[in-house]
Design brief:
Order of helices and strands: HEEHEE
Number of domains: 1
CATH superfamily: Histidine kinase-like ATPase, C-terminal domain
Shape: globular
CATH architecture: 2-Layer Sandwich
Helix content: 10-25%
Strand order of the largest sheet: 1-2-4-3
Strand content: 25-35%
Structural class: alpha+beta
Distance between the termini: 22 Å
Number of helices: 2
Radius of gyration: 14 Å
CATH topology: Heat Shock Protein 90
Mean pLDDT: 87
CATH class: Alpha Beta
Number of strands: 4
Amino acid sequence: MFNAIDAIELDDNEDGIVEIIYDSDDIYHKFYIYDSGIDIENKEELFEAFRSTKVKGNGLGLVLSRQIAEAHGGYVKLMDSDRKAFEIGLAK
């Protein structure tokens, strides 16, 4: 959520949207987070530790989020879609 808000604040458009959608299947609770902020610059480095485009960022937020989710049988990934989105899966 913080990353989505930061991306919106960096956009020239004064209006921003964060959308959260919930779904589930037999294995996961799934959360989809969309935002209307600026595009992600370096998708290949997105989950690399200590890589950040933010002035005050340390590059650990997404890395730690993914590690915590995976330690509990879940995942965090960038969606390959028309809209910028992350998918978070939490094991049931």
